[in-house]
Amino acid sequence: MENIGIVSYGANIPRFRIKAEDIASVWGKDGNAISKGLGIIEKSVPSIDQDTATISVEAARAALSRCNIDPQDIGAIYIGSESHPYAVKPTGTIVGDAIGATPDLMVADYEFACKAGTAAIQTCTAFVKSGMIKYGLAVGADTSQAAPGDALEYSASAGGAAFIIGKKDVIANINHTYSFTTDTPDFWRRAERKYPSHGGRFTGAPAYFKHVTNCAINCMKIAGTKPEDYDYAVFHQPNGKFPVNVAKKLGFTFDQIKQGLVVPYIGNTYSGASLVGLASVLDVVKPGDRIFLTSYGSGAGSDGFDITVTDKIKNLARKNAPTIAQMVENKEYIDYGTYAKITDLLYWE
Amino acid sequence: MADGGVARFWREIPQRYNFIGNKCESCERIFFPPRESCPYCRRKSMGKMKESKLSGKGEIITYTIIHVSPENFEEQIPYAVAIVKLEEGPQVTAQIVDCPIDEIKIGMKVESTFRRIQEDGYTGAIYYGYKFKKTEK
Amino acid sequence: MRDVAVIGVGLTKFGELWDKSFRQLTAEAGSKAIIDAGIEGKDIDALYVGTMSAGRFVGQEHVGALVADTSGFSFEHIPAIRVESACASGGVAVRQGYLSIASGMNDIVVVGGIEKMNDVGGTAATGTLVTAADQEWEAFFGATFPGIYAMLATRHMHEHGTTKEQLAQVAVKNHANGALNPHAQFRREIPIETVMKATMVAYPLGLLDCSPVSDGAASIILCAADKAKEYTDNPIKIIGSGQASDSLALHARRDICTLDSTVHAAKMAYKQANITAKDIDLAEVHDCFTIAEICAIEDLGFVKKGEGGKAIDNKITTLDGSLPVNTSGGLKAKGHPVGATGVAQIVEIVQQLKGNADKRQVPDAKIGLAHNIGGSGASCTIHIMEAM
User: Fold this and answer.
1) I want to staple A21 with a disulfide (CB 3.0 to 4.6 A). Which of A31, A219, A220, C83 is the partner?
2) Does C252 lie at the interface with B, CB-CB under 8 angstroms?
3) How much is the pTM?
4) Any idea of the CA torsion for C195, C198, C201, C205, to the nearest 10 degrees?
5) 3-state SS class at C296
6) What confidence tens digit (pLDDT) does each residue in C345-368 have?
7) What is the CA radius of gyration of chain B?
8) Are A49 and B117 inside 8 Å of each other by CB?
9) What architecture is domain B55-137?
10) Are C31 and C94 in contact, with CB atoms under 8 Å apart?
């Protein structure tokens, strides 16, 4: 069976950081306790001139810089986000023009809370598999919003990753993909509203854990695998605790998820979260490594992937673009006042 | 309320997104933004201007820090604006980002980054384009 | 080509003139000039008016006709032309009026310059001023008009060692001169520490390195030289007129620190006048920002390129120096109602050459030069005058 999967990848994480402790002190909370409780030290904040479109473009350009693909051979672009710059007018066309993939191109924007990016990967995989396109570009990126003083304020951050899907020179084969989906109102944002709402503790067991667990179990059943078969596992990371707990429940070790766990340092990049985790894993993999990825999007659903790294990873010029570790370290701290100025103005109604 | 007026900035998307300039086939000089004719060869260059994509890499030859901004840029104060000499020859005016203001120097090597430049109010179009950041070694 | 002389001048006060409208200011300057020249309405062959942006400042275009109307000439039906070249609108209007007489087409023309900048708010005024720069490739990316000159200053400091203190001395000198000028917007001396500590506008230029937003109008009457003495005992001849253009954006210039438009306009004017820079006794130069005056005295050939700062240190250009520059107070202290400036500069030179400059009088002033720039140097006009 021919390989179909990831041909190249890239990511973009804005430089600004704000510490969970600094947010907590503004609201009179115990920063240390909150930070430990959430498993988040600090989160990324976009600068005023960055948004989902700029993050997507930079991530896509990073992906292109690592391989020799002619952008004109990209036949489809799907951008998944909860913070597309326009409610109506796609981010995908901005990316398409910016990377030189237009005009022979299929484009649409996706939304499915934090799993819109993995949904984009599934779509591109299907297009490539059917022979309709040569390469597809799937991006998950966000500059996510959180109400001031809300629990989500500690985690909602900015970042994204881009994946070029194809049949030629595949560096990581997508062996299987499966999705588990139900109508579950754990976290949502109504149209015209600036900030999301959520069901508090309801976001745990009936939402994140139910979908991630079922998806993972069913995906492994289809793939005929067990947790021990994998070198790396990436689970959606809304905070530093959920992915650790679900990994344990499913039988994965902390060592397996460590490389893909970036949320303590950059927060939850929403549609970018599991994809930035996957990019972090791809930064270090060797041929033959097997990766298990399960994303989660509120509303709700999980996309599972069984991935095997091929020999071709050796030919990918990974050093042509910064690694996740390098982007995590490339940071500048800001205070809450600057944070408030930036986030108010990005999403001002 | 935004009332049309988008064509002017839409036309320049290839320039702002991808540094598409052009080259005079008569004297080989590269221009950005692209010109209808070469100011050196003039008539000889008519019909001989060929599209040319620039790399977006260059160096700062002068700069200022803006403390009093035009409309649409107030949230960014203070911000750095520089004249960047691109490696192919042309010079452009653009913001310098991702660099502490006191580290900006004449001679600093820079490369382009894709950012929001401005928007037509809260209801109008968003215009993306180039800014420059320090080149990582 | 005939010779042309200035036979009358008129000026309003410059400043924040809340009580005076665009129309009132033009009428005031115009009538003062006409009375000064001793001519009558029917003597006027044409009207040239320079204004940068009546459209954006007062929502009014069709300004040539409007000014002819408010000046009382609508029943004379004279040709009325509005000229625009950003901050050089006034100077270019002067040159157009001059050319129309030199060519033999007209005998007597009125040239006016006017800007009414305070009918809009500060942000709108800033946004209008920057239309003098490249809208697509400078302003669009966040550059302001002071920002563009600031980049010139940064490079001048880097290449030629010019200091912020030397820039500040230009402001101090011009305010000292402005204090002696009854029409000036600012009539107080300011100490150098105040200039050095002023709020930053665009590094390295602070608030007091920048000319102000002003209202005002100026007017001159030009007449064929061979007829001038019919109207006045003391006509002032234009012995040289030059104009030049350059790339709109600063980043497209040959040399960031040189305004080639000044160099070329000066060459043209000096050649026509058959003189060199050494023969100039005093000059009104375009100090929209302090750095602009330093560049101007270099580009006009008064000092070598890069030595403008040293000239200020050596007090060459003060009122009692060997080459007084901006005895009126310059744009900095006199004010800069954009379109009026180019014409107002001519008024000052004429007054100096006639001996009417009162406390600002430069003794034995014989040949004077007016230098008017548009934008960051994309256009320039220069006029050299001498008493007949």
Assistant:
1) A31
2) yes
3) 0.92
4) 30
5) helix
6) 999 999 999 999 999 999 999 999
7) 17
8) yes
9) Beta Barrel (2.40)
10) no
Residue C72: per-residue pLDDT: 87
Candidates B64, B79, B131; nearest CB to C151: B64
User: Helix crossing, C260-273 with C290-299: angle to 10°?
Assistant: 50
Q: Among this protein's residues, is C295 annotated catalytic?
A: no
Question: What topology does CATH give the domain A5-171+315-346?
Answer: Peroxisomal Thiolase; Chain A, domain 1 (3.40.47)
Q: Which fold has domain C145-209+238-387?
A: Peroxisomal Thiolase; Chain A, domain 1 (3.40.47)
Taking a C-beta distance cutoff of 8 angstroms, is the pair B116, A42 a contact? Answer: no
| Interface confidence: ipTM more than 0.90 | yes
Q: Write out the H or E segment, with its range, that includes residue C1.
A: none
Confidence of residue B1 (pLDDT cuts 50, 70, 90): very low
| pLDDT bracket for residue A343 (50, 70, 90) | confident
Q: How high is the pLDDT of residue A273?
A: 97
Is CATH 3.40.47.10 the right assignment for the domain spanning A172-312? yes
In this prediction, residues B5-20 reach a mean pLDDT of: 92
Q: A89 to chain B: nearest residue by CA?
A: B125
Active site residue C336: yes
Q: Cis peptide before C363, with omega less than 30 degrees from 0?
A: no
C136:B65 CB<8 A: no
Measured between alpha carbons, how far is C35 from C49 in angstroms, rounded to an integer?
Answer: 18
- Whether A54 and B128 lie within 8 Å, measured CB to CB: yes
In angstroms, the CA A165 to CA A173 distance is: 10
Nearest CA in chain A to B131: A49
CA-based diameter of chain B, in Å? 47
Phi-psi label, residue B89: left if phi above 0, alpha if psi -120 to 50, beta otherwise:
left
**A98 near B CB under 8 A:** yes
Residue matched to tokens 């409309």:
B71
